[in-house]
């Protein structure tokens, strides 16, 4: 009788405990505490429960909602640039690098990957200097090829600042999709490609018809990583444009809005409750995005057994 | 441990009575002025310690951008120093109201300061003052004297002369007329709007009227400074939209720009960097003979941690900070930071002297957005940064900018709602 009763397998609990405890302490508790904090406000020095009042202000008061929708729209643009520029370039670079007859492939791979390990502060500062109309090398370089008239103070103009920053971010992170796709491409067995060659599928059409379908799951993962990364972005904008995300909030994304609200800025005192409301809204946006991907896209991607 | 601190406290009280001997009390100062560390350690603290044996002072600054956050958490945790360097207005007021800063209204040295000087660190009704005012900064324009001599220009006093000078520099073409950028936004607001504005809104008079709700930001005296700023764009360097604050500083100190809309805090830095002669002129007045007003902004004060274990020693130090002796020492160690005490102070640096001399000719006021008006959301100071930068770039008309600011202010500030 006693043998049929399922035994508690203590070793599982023991081995999981460190990770679960650490993760709970540093991730799950703060997350839920932030969500909880969003439901409170400080009235006359006391913390009181106000229900959804903070969210009503955030979405109902034009002062807040304009800033929020502006930040969200900017954030989507930031993400779109990454999807439209970073990921295709990353895939193209990976396809070129995986070409068996390319020389110095390891050198290119490292060179393209290096910016990824640089600090945001260095990247932001270096690009600010490169693009500076006063000391930058960009005007001089354009001048050398006779295109000086194309130069503009890109980071200082509302129309161009966000796109410029997104492209800087693309420059920095293009190494990540490249590496992931590169690894996926290397895992495609030679036999499949050879079989394709026998059927007359070579060169570019081999890429489109054989390799691309096989790396689609990797592209899916990259898209979702890009999405989460972009909607949590903050550092680059802060380093390059400051917390006010100038000019005229044209580079304001959810991260900088959260920072200004939560921690305050210059004479604006921080408001942890309103800040938590912004953080909760960010969390919701990311959660919805990830869910759409998981249930709408990932389940439909066809996987091939290699 | 407790026994020793008790002994320390007892000794500190005897110190104040003038019978200072025996065991030392150490006071720690919290500050954001990490640039001034060597000046405090080499000049200010030794001068105090020489006069007050038995009290040791330790200057412990943190980074300016993190100061408010670091200080608040230290105060909450009870680990903050005995003396707290105070930001002006609401940041410190919140600390006082939270019981973190002690009321200093009745220390003797406070008599050395005028009400305007104390306004940065007093309750709204002026009843209690919780920090000793240390220094203010004055706005104006610093110019390249050599460049002016080369082009045969003179310091402008009226707005027309000011633009005539700018036109002349622009026409000559060897210098950028004015070094200012809009990338960091605050330059346009602080060195632009708050610099020239007081001449239009007549300093304290206009500022008080705004606080009382008798004037609004759409009144001509508040819009006109923006109309002036709108004309500045033509005289700034190529690509000023992406020019940052350090860019502006470098453009001027490298001798590439002739005029720099400045705050007096630049003086010591510029003295080290510029190899040409510098002069300064106050913000030009709208018409010949108009009274002049300058922004003489209260910037640094020092208060006492309400939870300090050595209140008497701390008060001794604060009284010394309020003394003319400290004022002279500080003003000369840090030219460009002007003491706020009523005592006459001899300033040696010629450029700083020039700035300080305007106090005799012009009326002083503080930045319009700092007291009370930046308490709500949207924050008027931050909005002013944005509006000033937009106006200088020509992206928004002065009237639109003013209307937007007024709308934001009246959204939460009751006296502006009638």
TrEMBL record, chain A:
Coiled coil spans: none
Record's keyword terms, sorted: Cell membrane, Membrane, Transmembrane, Transmembrane helix, Transport
Transmembrane region(s): 12-32, 76-97, 106-127, 163-185, 214-237, 275-296
InterPro entries named in the record: ABC_transporter_permease, MetI-like, MetI-like_sf
Annotated localization: Cell membrane
Biological-process GO terms, alphabetical: transmembrane transport
GO terms for cellular component: plasma membrane
Bilayer topology: Multi-pass membrane protein
Signal peptide residues on this chain, from the entry's feature table: none
Family named by the database record: Belongs to the binding-protein-dependent transport system permease family.
Protein's name in the database: Carbohydrate ABC transporter membrane protein 1, CUT1 family
UniProtKB/TrEMBL annotation, chain B:
Principal location class: periplasm
Domain of life, source organism: Bacteria
Keyword Cytoplasm on entry: no
Signal peptide (residue range): 1-22
Single GO cellular component term: periplasmic space
Gene Ontology biological-process annotations: transmembrane transport
Protein keywords: Signal, Transport
InterPro entries, per the entry: Bact_solute-bd_prot1, SBP, SBP_1_CS
Compartments it resides in: Periplasm
A matching Pfam family: SBP_bac_1
Similarity section: Belongs to the bacterial solute-binding protein 1 family.
Family matches, as PANTHER family: ARABINOSE-BINDING PROTEIN-RELATED (PTHR43649), BINDING PROTEIN COMPONENT OF ABC SUGAR TRANSPORTER-RELATED (PTHR43649:SF28)
Reported function: Part of a binding-protein-dependent transport system for a sugar.
Protein name: Probable sugar-binding periplasmic protein
């Amino acid at each position: 009788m006693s043998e049929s009763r399922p035994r508690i397998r203590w070793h599982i609990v023991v081995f999981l405990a460190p990770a679960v405890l650490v993760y709970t302490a540093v991730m799950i508790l703060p997350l839920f505490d932030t969500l909880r904090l969003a439901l409170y406000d400080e009235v006359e020095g006391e913390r009181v429960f106000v229900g959804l009042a903070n969210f009503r202000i955030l979405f109902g008061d034009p002062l807040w909602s304009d800033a929020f929708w502006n930040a969200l729209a900017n954030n989507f643009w930031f993400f779109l640039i990454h999807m439209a520029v970073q990921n295709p370039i990353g895939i193209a670079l990976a396809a070129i690098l995986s070409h068996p007859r390319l020389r110095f492939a390891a050198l290119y791979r490292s060179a393209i990957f290096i910016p990824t390990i640089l600090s945001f502060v260095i990247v932001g500062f270096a690009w600010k200097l490169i693009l500076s109309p006063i000391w930058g090398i960009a005007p001089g370089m354009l001048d050398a090829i006779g295109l000086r008239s194309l130069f503009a103070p890109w980071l200082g103009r509302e129309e161009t600042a966000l796109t410029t920053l997104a492209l800087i971010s693309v420059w920095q992170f293009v190494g990540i999709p490249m590496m992931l796709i590169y690894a996926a491409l290397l895992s495609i067995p030679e036999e499949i490609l050879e079989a394709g060659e026998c059927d007359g599928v070579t060169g570019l059409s081999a890429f489109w018809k054989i390799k691309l379908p096989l790396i689609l799951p990797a592209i899916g993962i990259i898209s979702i990583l890009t999405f989460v990364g972009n909607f949590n972005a903050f550092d680059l904008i802060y380093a390059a444009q400051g917390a006010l995300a100038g000019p005229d909030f044209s580079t304001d994304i959810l991260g900088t809005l959260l920072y200004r609200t939560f921690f305050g800025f210059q004479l604006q005192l921080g408001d942890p409750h309103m800040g938590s409301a912004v953080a909760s809204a960010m969390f919701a946006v990311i959660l919805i995005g990830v869910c759409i991907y998981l249930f709408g896209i990932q389940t439909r991607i066809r996987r091939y057994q290699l | 441990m407790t026994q020793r601190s008790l002994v320390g406290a007892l000794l500190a009280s005897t110190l104040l009575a003038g019978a200072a001997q025996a065991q030392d009390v150490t006071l720690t100062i919290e500050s954001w002025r990490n640039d001034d560390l060597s000046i405090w350690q080499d000049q200010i603290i030794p001068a105090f310690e020489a006069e007050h044996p038995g009290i040791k002072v330790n200057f412990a600054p943190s980074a300016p951008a993190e100061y408010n956050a670091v200080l608040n958490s230290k105060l909450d945790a009870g680990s903050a120093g005995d003396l707290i360097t105070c930001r002006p207005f609401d940041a410190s007021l919140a600390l006082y109201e939270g019981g973190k800063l002690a009321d200093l209204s009745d220390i003797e040295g406070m008599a050395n300061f005028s009400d305007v000087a104390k306004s940065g660190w007093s309750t709204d009704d002026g009843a209690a003052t919780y920090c000793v005012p240390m220094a203010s900064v004055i706005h104006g324009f610093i110019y390249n004297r050599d460049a002016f001599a080369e082009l045969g220009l003179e310091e402008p006093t009226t707005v027309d002369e000011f633009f005539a000078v700018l036109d002349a520099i622009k026409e000559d073409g060897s210098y950028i007329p004015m070094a200012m950028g809009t990338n960091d936004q605050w330059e346009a607001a602080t060195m632009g709007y708050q610099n020239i504005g007081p001449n239009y809104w007549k300093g304290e008079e206009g500022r008080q009227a705004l606080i009382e709700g008798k004037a609004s930001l759409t009144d001509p005296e508040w819009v006109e400074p923006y109309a002036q700023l709108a004309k500045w764009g033509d005289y700034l360097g190529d690509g000023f939209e992406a020019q940052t604050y350090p860019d502006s500083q470098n453009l001027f100190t490298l001798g590439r720009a002739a005029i720099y809309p400045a705050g007096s805090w630049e003086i010591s830095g510029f003295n080290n960097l510029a190899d040409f002669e510098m002069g300064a002129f106050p913000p030009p007045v709208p018409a010949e003979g108009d009274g002049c007003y300058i922004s003489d902004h209260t910037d640094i004060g020092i208060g006492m941690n309400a939870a300090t274990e050595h209140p008497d020693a701390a008060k001794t130090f604060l009284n010394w900070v309020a003394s003319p002796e400290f004022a002279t020492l500080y003003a000369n160690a840090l030219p460009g930071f002007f003491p706020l005490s009523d005592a006459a102070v001899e300033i040696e640096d010629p450029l700083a002297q020039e700035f300080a001399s305007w106090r005799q000719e012009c009326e002083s006021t503080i930045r319009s957005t700092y007291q009370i008006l930046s308490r709500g959301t949207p924050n008027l100071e931050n909005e002013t940064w944005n509006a000033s930068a937009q106006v200088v770039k020509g992206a928004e008309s002065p009237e639109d900018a003013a209307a937007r600011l007024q709308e934001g202010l009246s959204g939460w500030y009751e006296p502006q709602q009638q």
